[in-house]
Amino acid sequence: MYAILFSLIFLINIIISQDSIGGMPFAKQNKIKLNNNLVIMPILDIEKLILEDENRPPATPFRYGYKFNVQLNLQNSGEWESLENGDRIWTLSIKSEDAKAISIEYDNFKLPDNSTFFVYNKNKILGAYTQKNNQTDMLFSTPLIQGDYVNLEYYEPFEAFGQGIISIDYIIHDYRDILNFSNNSNSRSCGDNVVCNSANEFTDQINSTSFLDMGGYICSGAMINNTSFDLTPYYWTAWHCVEGDNPSTFRFYFNYETSSCNGSWANQGSYEYGSSILSDSNGMDNDYALLIINDSSISDGIFYSGWSKSNENPVISCGIHHPNGDPKKINFDNDTAYSSGSINWQGQGSSPAGSHWRVLWDDGGTYGGSSGSPVFNEDGLLVGQLSGGSGNCYSGDTEDYYGKFSLSFINVSQWLDPINSGAVQIVGTYDGTNQTDNDNDGVAESNDWDDNDQYVCSDIDDDSCDDCNSGSFDIYDDGLDFDGDGICDAGDIDDDNDGVSDQVDSHPLDNFLCSDIDEDNCDDCSSGYYSPEDDGCFFMMGDLNLDSAINILDVVAMVNIIMGILEPSETQLNLADLNNDNNININDIVLLINIIMG
Predict the structure, then answer these.
(1) I want to staple 441 with a disulfide (CB 3.0 to 4.6 A). Which of 301, 315, 382, 473 is the partner?
(2) Angstrom distance (rounded) from CA 220 to CA 208
(3) Structure pTM?
(4) How deeply is 567 buried, as exposed, middle or buried, from its count of CB atoms within 10 A (0-12, 13-18, 19+)?
């Protein structure tokens, strides 16, 4: 029974976090009591915090947790216990009264080889974390774990004595139950759950969007593609979501979705961890941020959304987001978005006229937690990210403002168009396959380039010519094979006027050759130039293998023709019909044998 339980816990940990290896804390396995190592956080005035949230300025991230600034580390807190083999463990327990969940941020974190680190309670085991979780900036965080009490355990082998570094910077008290551990019902007024049938045509866009946990605050955002289609994990969100925060501790939940259309509970699933900011607007003027996720392995099934940098007013199809921290929702629209005027963001400054797209949703709306979420045009391409708007979809106000991707692009083109393609738009991808058809040749861009980055183009009209001979798709200017030699006339130099390109005429031994255009098994250039009417063909009746001799080999060829084993050319049929009765049969074989016998 114990082995089964251990296996189940191991499996659950793998599902919850790809950054941990599973397992069981040593103290839990050996029933070591941890109450003597308890750190208790101050009591919070939750009503006061919620009132502050209700009066927060627009265009600010949605707060779900209070961050206690602490300085707890291996030297000043917890308790060490040495084991018989020389290894040792450090344990610490933390309690924050009435917390719905607790997460922890570390400002110095480094694990030596063969060490392990766990955060756990009766509801969940997070870990084991190992040296694979070390980051160059030595920052780390562990995700929300349900309950107001958590245990920490660091296991250090004898050979790594004193090498571990664990320093806790913040303990985050979740007072909103942001991941809905308690399974309370939520509202559909902020959009449909993305598993509803209404969202079926937007599966790709849904799979690109994530719940963004910044530690105490949440936003939304989306993975975004680049013109190299190389699956670089670029992530698009709003500047006001990342401003003043540390992206090294961000977590990206792409699968936080309900299991049914009417349901409210969802398992947040695995997450991608850590990021760096590549570029941002440094203000509300189109309010964008481009991040790169540092996680060494991106989960399967994530879509890298396509984008359009066109500055023409887009027709909007949908927006995908996590309002109020709810499981993923989708809004719908089929109207044209228009440039917004100057927006007063109360404490965040103003955005210049024309910096945002103004959207009035037909179905759904946004709320705190939706900030940074993508909006898509009628082609399913990202055209902006949410700065703010009504701020309350529950009231029925659906006016929102999305920073224009078209204005941001010039600042991010080095990452999103690294090959300087100049593309106005690109499609998204799951696996790096490029289905964009920029030259309108009916062939995906990924098939227009070979392994050596040479441009190729399919022969759409089946004339054996490159339909991109002119440099772009054009079946009317593709080097047509006017002389019928099987080689497109583009580059088909024919100095000897034999109707065959010189590259075919040039034998490896520099002997002059010429194709048999009329398929009579004769050299159409036997006279020194191209002339199928005078190609020097002189055949003997019965010489079926055309070797200028009549012998048993020709008998074999004739038998094979009669039995259907050999498909003869027109010349061979003429030479095999020795009695001129327009049939090849036993009588022709008798005549052929008589010829051979004289």
Answers:
(1) 473
(2) 11
(3) 0.71
(4) exposed
